[in-house]
């Protein structure tokens, strides 16, 4: 198996965890399977860079002297907001020569500025998805997943999602056993599916302004197996069903049915991840009623059955 060179781009204002998270994953894979990865870091002039948290990172060398990598990884951070034009030009020139382009968090903004994401489906940190889409209309921005693969381009959401993406790439390159070993050493899950939402239901929706609607939101979260029909929820808020549905969407940003779907899916995911309960028991506890109804919801939203989700997400016990 040929060794893959991973080149990580460093710049002032980089987010330190965007760098160290993936580097730890690929370095761990190299320790597991020697000769598979060669991890290098480089800045424009080869000098140290100061991260957004104040840490100083010393690169292995300069970008201008770096050999063409198999995988070019561009992290995010405050430094992507007003990047050095020379860095953008270097990416525009060097990016197409890499076998695989990877960005973490707002590193996607740098790739977009270099014209490397046109016509691609990508993601980035939720707070910058709208900005990326507005400034680069030729880029298809999906704000929901934690990472997205589009051919030889892979982009991830904020910070820790870079670890999820790196584990997925190691699994693709070396197989599940290698990726699982790395995940165990890092004490992280292998692995969150890429199309898992960046947000929980409670974070994805806005908090309603009016107390009765806030109380309904909380009640839904605490009673996913209850009667969560619009009629029942409207009665709890002392509103007519039509008025309730309009007010709920206006104040939370989503219809009550979608909010209920998100809460139930999130509840089922947590039970799959954290308990040994059976699929049938979890489907009832999460409000689906039947395993088949839960299976359809998982396939529609996550692209995996509940059993497959549990297998991917819940690590085997470390022995």
TrEMBL record:
Record has Transcription regulation as a keyword: yes
MF GO annotations: DNA-binding transcription factor activity; sequence-specific DNA binding
InterPro entries for the chain: Class_I_gatase-like, DJ-1/PfpI, Homeodomain-like_sf, HTH_AraC, INH-QAR
Residues in HTH araC/xylS-type domain copies: 214-312
Keywords attached to this entry: Transcription, Transcription regulation
PANTHER family (alphabetical): ARAC-FAMILY TRANSCRIPTIONAL REGULATOR, HTH-TYPE TRANSCRIPTIONAL REGULATOR RV1931C
Protein's UniProt name: Transcriptional regulator
Organism: Streptomyces spiralis
